[in-house]
Design goal:
The chain is mostly beta strands. It contains 1 helix and 9 strands. The protein has one domain. A hairpin with a 3-residue loop joins strand 4 and strand 5.
């Protein structure tokens, strides 16, 4: 609810990494690991901003932030086929009106 993200290992109650105020205090409404690239995850905040984290590039800050214009995005999920080498990765965005958008992610964050 405060924009913090914690990375846990299943065998410990303490986080391996913690990023406080990663969304400038906005609640995170969805977070998902990339299906095609294990070191990348995406977070959606309550203000319809998508944050892309690539832990191989930087473990301090997101490598990109994309505001989704116009209508509020209420949730997101990722789609892709990890068993295929093409590295296609899409983000499915659900808007407040019920409209669904699918956007493809740049290859540098999707390729295995």
């Amino acid at each position: 609810s405060d924009g913090s993200i914690r990375l846990h290992q299943m065998t410990s109650e303490y986080p391996l990494m913690q990023w406080n105020d990663s969304t400038k205090g906005q609640p995170i409404v969805a977070l998902q690991w990339a299906l095609t690239r294990p070191a990348v995850f995406f977070a959606l905040d309550a203000s319809s901003n998508i944050y892309i984290w690539d832990l191989l590039e930087s473990d301090l800050l997101p490598v990109a932030k994309q505001a989704v214009p116009s209508e509020k995005v209420v949730t997101m999920t990722l789609l892709g086929e990890p068993e295929k080498a093409n590295g296609l990765l899409g983000i499915v965005l659900a808007r407040e009106s019920g409209q669904i958008d699918i956007q493809y992610v740049k290859k540098k964050w999707a390729s295995p």
